[in-house]
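Margin note from the TA: students keep mixing up input and output lines. Inputs are the sequences; the output is the structure of the whole complex. Example:
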Amino acid sequence: MATTSPEKRRTIGVCERCGKPTVVWVHPDGSVRSVSGHNACPCPTPSFRPVRDG
Ligand SMILES: [Zn+2]
């Protein structure tokens, strides 16, 4: 019953620069942004990569 949703989904992402995990939004276009905004990690331009946990 898995429906493909056009909505963004929440998952765990890891910053590719500093390796810090945080909660991120994954948008339908593939962009990943931290839920908490710019304070997710100390990087000036963080680049989060979504990970599958479990
Ligand atoms: Zn970082």
